[in-house]
Amino acid sequence: MRTNPTRRRALALAGAAGAAGLAGAALAAPALAQSPWPAKPVRFIVPFPPGQAADIFARLMAEKLTDMWKQQVVVENKGGGSGIPATEAGKAAAPDGYTLMVVSSGTFGVNPSLYPDLPYKPLVDFLPISNIFLVPLVIVGHPTLPVNTLGELIELAKKEPGRLSYASAGPGTSQHLSMELFKLKAGVDIVHIPYKGSGPAMSDLLGGHVKLMMDSTASALNAIRDGRIKALAVTTARTAPAPLDNIPPIAKTLPGFDAAGWSGLAAPARTPLEIVARVNRDVTTLLNDDAVIRQIEQRAAIPAPGTPIQFAGFIKKEIDTWGEVVKATGTKPGT
Fold first, then answer.
1. Helix, strand, or coil here: 100?
2. Above 50 in pLDDT, residue 131?
3. pLDDT for 158-180, tens place per residue?
4. The whole model's pTM is what?
5. Which of 16, 214, 254, 281 has its CA 20 to 30 A from that of 144?
6. CA distance 61 to 66
7. How far apart are CA 183 and CA 186, in angstroms?
């Protein structure tokens, strides 16, 4: 096993903020039941359809943890509704460690600001366990889109305001808000077309039904490599991991731009702390394994495990950051 510099940087980012709020929830959790855990299959609720980055890496973790725990880890996709119905299901699940929630920059970072009446509170109704990955987002276009650089896209959008449109994984996702932030900083008008996940959006992009999309590098990578779509820019200020290290960052054209998608695991509030610690330990072990690191980095993503306290602090920082973007852009649900 090894800990590479990229993962260390990601871990430092995950622990950047304080974790007020987790301690109270943690103290309220009951003691671990006497029977060993896990004694039956474990369920991961993924608030997106198959094909999105959160789903891709949740399935990788499920496969590896099934081997480690000698119990099946089942991935259950509940897409749609900006991840709210799925997250409500996770909140309502029994706090016994047998249902864990795959949380993301959209459901835990953006939704608290986008939806005033959100029926869950990330750091009250859940116990953060660990982040899994950070992933740059990428602006991609259909081959028939008459631009090949971000500068050309901005020029075209300014010439024809409101005529271009872009697809995203859905309202309130990191893909959506990152593109809205780009529009704000570039001073362009590009119409948002929301989908119920990256998979359906990518299908329409590949078919030419939409010409532009903001997606995670993890889910767009194969189509980029095959030449079925073209990549214009990535959202992270630093260069994206190989094999997309030749794609320029948005910050090269719009200085200061920096954003990333992420996904991790959380448990319903009052889940025994021993189970939270066990899952955290095992996920951290996997994310330090050479083979797993390679599988994640091959999709241009960055392994980013951390302690529950670090992950709680990271979530709080994301809520604050995207709250400012929602306010500045005037973004509303469904737009």
1. strand
2. yes
3. 999 999 999 998 877 888 899 99
4. 0.77
5. 254
6. 8
7. 5
